[in-house]
Amino acid sequence: MTETGRGVMVRRRLLTGDTIIAIPESLLITTSTVLRSYLGPVIHDFLPCRLSPTETLVIFLLCERNKGCSSFWKPYVDILPSSYTDILHWTSKEMDLLPKFTKRRACDLRLKAEESFNRLCNGFLPLLVRQMPQFNGAFTWDLFKWAWSSVNTRCVYMSQPQNSVLSPDEEDKSALAPFLDLLNHTVDVEVNARFDDSSKSYKITTLTACKPYDQVFINYGPHSNEKLLLEYGFTLPCNPHNNISLTLSQSLPVP
Question: Do β-strands 201-206 and 19-24 pair in parallel, antiparallel, or remain unpaired?
Fold first, then answer.
């Protein structure tokens, strides 16, 4: 795609109310998927310590990448980006270009990932490698950053029942949705995105018509360019949801 690189083009006209895509529940990667997999017993053995939902998805993605051709999810893993542009992958010099308030937020996001990696290296990962030695070497910092960004930039919102073996400190609300995550964001369209209980699929319905052979977009929500840059690694020109963050010292007294 000229504007976005990756993307999805439609071959026929989409009208308001048409379904753009529907992904069956069996092809969504959620914490339930992970807990039903070979990792489930290891996660139970880790109790009373608990993984966060994000950590659970990140570890599963790294294990599936490591499995290579034996992984059911290999076709999906193979089309994930090999690199990302969110702040987890910025250099210190690039971070220094950010405004002070934005840089503080960026540092907080990076610290969250770094603390998660260190916590896993000192707890869950040694347990996993003892039980499944084939995963030794699958959890370097660079690979962890790749998986962390894959989860945090590409997941859809899909609330899950809270599971007692996972940390209650983070809401379990994310799912990796193969192919669906190729759809790009714009503020110029409206969509209805949700898990449809009747069809047991994650479905996106467009509320904006689309011409044949145009790129079809979705809308992540009313996000400012700061949020898009820090969490997704891109910005939008003429973003109507843009804002400027001010500190109290920068605010003016009301007359």
Answer: antiparallel
Are 230 and 109 in contact by the 8 Å Cβ rule? The answer is yes
User: Which pLDDT tens digit goes with each residue over 38-97?
Assistant: 999 999 999 999 999 999 999 999 999 999 999 999 999 999 999 999 999 999 999 999
Q: What's the CA gap between 97 and 114, in Å, rounded?
A: 21
Domain range annotation of the chain: 1-28+178-234, 29-176
Q: Say what angle helices 100-121 and 141-154 make with each other, to 10 degrees.
A: 120
Instruction: Give the CATH number of domain 1-28+178-234; options: 3.40.50.720, 3.40.630.30, 2.120.10.30, 2.170.270.10.
Output: 2.170.270.10
Q: Does the bond joining 212 to the residue before it have cis omega, within 30 degrees of 0? A: no
Indicate the helix (H) or strand (E) that contains 65. Answer: helix 53-67
A 10 A CB-CB count for 117 gives 19
Q: Does domain 29-176 have CATH number 3.30.750.24?
A: no
pTM: 0.91
What are 144-158's pLDDT values in tens digits? 999 999 999 999 999
